[in-house]
Amino acid sequence: MIKDRKFFKVIFFLGIILLLAVVTGGVGKVLVFLSKGGNRADLLNIPPELPSEYTPKVIWLNDDTDTGRPMESSNRNIIAKDYVRALYQRNLSLLTAKPDGIKEYYTLAARPKIFAQINLVASSETSIERAEINHNLKLHFYSADGQLVSFTDRFVESRERVKNKEGRLLASKVEYADFNTLMQLDDGYWRIKHVVRMPPNTIPDTLIADSTNRKAFFLEKLKSIKGINYYPRDTPWKDFWITYNSVTTQKDFKLIKKLGFNTIRIFVNFEQFGKGNVVPEMIQRLENVLNTATANNLSLIVTLFDFNSNYSLLNFPATDRQLETLLTTFKNHPALLAWDLKNEADLDFFYQNREEVKEWLKFIIKKAKKYDSIHPITVGWAYPENADYLADEFDFVSFHYYKEATKLGEAIDSLRKKVNNKPLVLSEFGLSSYRSKVFPYNQTETQQAEYFRDIQEVLKQKGNIPSIYWTLYDFTSVSSDIAGWRPWQRNNQKYFGIIGADGSLKKIGNIIIHPEQIIKKSFIESFPHYSFLYIIIFLFLVAAFIKRNFIFSLFNKILK
Amino acid sequence: MYLKNKKYLWGLFPIFLVGIVIAYFLFFQRKVIISTSSDSQFFFQFNLPNSLYAGSKLSIKLPQHTPNCQLLLNSSWGTWWLDLSKNEFYIPDSVMMQSGLLDISLFYNKNIIAETQIFIKPLQAFEPLETFLGSKSIIADGGEHWSMITAIPTDKFINPVYENTPVHFSFKRPNGNSEAYDIPTKHLVSFKKIYSQQKVGKTIISMKAANAAGKEKELLEIPGYPRPFNIENDELYPYADARQYFKLKTGIIKDKFENVVSNGTLVSINIKDTDGSYRQLTSYTIGGIARLMIQNPNIAGTMQISANIYGDVESNQLNIQFQETIKDFKISYNKQTEVLKIGPFIGAMGQYIADGAEVEVVLNPRQENLKALVIEGYAKFNLKQEQHPIGEMTIRFAGIEKRINIQLEVKDKNKNDKRP
């Protein structure tokens, strides 16, 4: 009975504390909401601008000779924007099966044609993802009073996916068509009045395909790379670009050169670069990285779309825009060696819908070849088992390897069989020298150095496969959204470096500089750190077991 | 003994926790498996016409005992997904009503097993014919300005009709001429520019495509920019009596094609008065003529009048001479009644001037103004009421100034004070 009371007392106090926390938090949220106030722009009731996530490419082709009235460039932009927005609204409605917003972008007579689709989607319990990737608008007619406009949207690439309610893919399709479109200025908004789908008229591609020689030059250069994956010590992953420091880059690149590397693999964060509308500052930062590499006589492999795991069709135009911006901006930069279109895309096979990932990869490869036909392209696969996927599309096959060095040879052999002698690059490998005091992780610096040497040995045997080590530094901090919340995973990520967090060269560094050096093992090193903890726990438990009566009486005293 | 005392189980708790951590660590790591699957396909080919009229019925027949398939349709307005539950399936009317290229793809197990394209042709133009006129009014300046009439013929399912469908435009112009054009549709619209002519008025527009008529439209041709014009005065009494009015009138204001300007055109009239001050008056035209009544000045001299429209189109300048309305007047003062009598005021034609003219008396020492109206030829000032000494004073009327010095008897102020 007394014990029960004590128990309930504890529960009661804990409950009160929890309740207070919830109430304070809740009231705080309400106060924050109330003190925010409204947005003044809401008063104007302006329909939303084109969202930054949806950025299909819009090109105005040459106008017809007699368009009725010449088009003003400002109106041209407004019309294109409203047209894209209208199609986006239709696509959103198909996705959500809700007709909200349609009336803002379609004239009265046109609306039923959209509503019929939405009803069908709603009744069939499916959702349709649809996105237009590009718009090539050719103006035919613009009325004298500026109220009507007729144009053809030529060779539109539309992509569709049909999914059931559980999100399982039922079908996907790419279609090309022309659309004769008539828009009307209605209540101050350009609304779609008529659309007629026509067979596609291809637009002559102005890009010159004669680039094989230059590509061969880069592929030849790839064979002799000795690379390293790079993030600064204090600002890895998501902190790299937003807190970019050119001085650090300069210092680190010099150091990389000193260590004997000639290639660096870096990562471009899709969201931080502004999705479809690439932020000019970010372009400047990337340019600075490339320039610094040039100054130090280093080559760069740029990995794009890092941390982008949105494979929805509505994200396709944004990825396309970013790809176009970066590739066309930097394709003539001397430091650039190759484009890695996506880091470890095969990991997304498990977390995302595999079909969708594959569709996106195919899409982005096609576009990348269009925007930069000079530089080799690839995707760095997380596992050599998956690296044969789309191998024909790539200029070289790139894969990552973090398992036992002894099994690498097998993996390379089986991969070679599947990829028909495409050049191979091991674009990430490494071993963490993480010695946990709690968790059973005990990889010493010696092991790390040995691992590096072993891998190099295997690569040499298999025909001098170029490799890129992960990574330059031991990181001071790794956020949990990179490596997972589990502390042993997070801490493990910190110790892959050649240079320690304190700036000292680790054993692996010596091996890199002097490959012939013999790796010395110390006797104490062979004792895992965590074993000490468990010995102490064990001793404590034994002591507690022997003195159990004393401990229980102590507990009782405290509770009383 | 230990079993009786269950407290010892607490001792196992930390070991249990450590066990969980190790177990989690060992067994719950993500395993990587990639599998590839291939699906069997069956053979099917569409046997459908190349083109159909909008609104037709289209059925798709599948062979007996085919597995469950789906249709993906790409029409003008979007994407349609249909589950084929039966062997014969009708494509929904809402799809068949849309003109344009229709893509039909048959899906089985995520794969396209058959594809075809049908062009859905629009029907004949159906009423009402949608027409748009802009601008609604243009200046009749002989073809410099133009308006545009646009027709968007659609069929009964509101699809734009075929390219090159003729649309008949007919105009009735202000000068009585009729015009008619047959213009084929191009890129969904058929349009005609209407160039202005020289006569102001309405152009009545009618349109017809096939049997579908459109609403009557009106294009207004309005007069253009006015040309310089004349002003003249009328009913002038040329004396500066500050009482009579005279009429100012513009000639008929026209544009360069002799069209009278629109009613309500604002005319600004600038006047330099006989005393040298300036003022601006405004008037609006009616029937091309702007009229204004202007009061005669009170001082003789020349009044200069000119008019303009929009500050740009100028008229001639009018100079009007105003003569003095009186030459002289007399002043008399009655000491008994203490009344200052000014007059008689005799007009130019020997008459008393009109009642109500204002006479001004300035009491010079104090610069105090007194005013009185002329009634029956005379203006009277009752100086008795003024409780102050009066000396020299100035009398002004119609530009004539006279000075007199009247010494009034100053009343003994102490008289009143010494009342018992």
Can you describe what's shown?
The complex is a heterodimer of chains A (560) and B (420). Chain A has helices spanning 2-36, 73-96, 102-105, 111-123, 212-223, 238-242, 246-258, 280-295, 316-330, 348-351, 354-371, 408-419, 445-461, 480-483, 487-494, 507-513, 529-546, 548-559; strands spanning 57-60, 126-132, 134-142, 148-164, 169-186, 189-198, 226-229, 263-269, 299-306, 336-343, 377-381, 397-401, 424-429, 467-469. Chain A has 560 residues and is of the alpha/beta class. Chain A folds into 3 domains: 57-198, Nuclear Transport Factor 2, Chain: A, CATH 3.10.450; 224-526, TIM Barrel (Alpha-Beta Barrel), CATH 3.20.20; 529-559. Chain A has an 8-stranded parallel β-barrel with strand order 7-8-9-10-11-12-13-14, surrounded by 6 helices. In chain A, strands 1, 2, 3, 4, 5 and 6 form a 6-stranded mixed β-sheet that branches. The mean pLDDT of chain A is 87. Chain B has helices spanning 8-27, 93-96, 414-417, and strands at residues 51-53, 59-61, 69-75, 78-84, 88-90, 100-108, 111-121, 130-134, 137-139, 146-152, 166-172, 178-184, 190-195, 201-209, 212-213, 217-222, 231-234, 245-250, 266-272, 278-286, 289-295, 301-309, 313-322, 331-334, 339-342, 358-363, 368-373, 379-382, 392-397, 400-405. Chain B has 420 residues and is mainly β. Mean pLDDT of chain B is 83; it is low at 29-40 and 412-420. In chain B, the strands form 7 sheets. A 7-stranded antiparallel β-sheet of chain B has the order 17-18-21-20-19-22-23, with no helix packed on it. The radius of gyration of chain B is 50 Å and the shape is elongated. The chains are: A alpha/beta (560), B mainly beta (420). At the A-B interface, helix 4, strand 2, strand 4, strand 5 and strand 6 of A face helix 1, strand 3, strand 4, strand 6 and strand 10 of B.
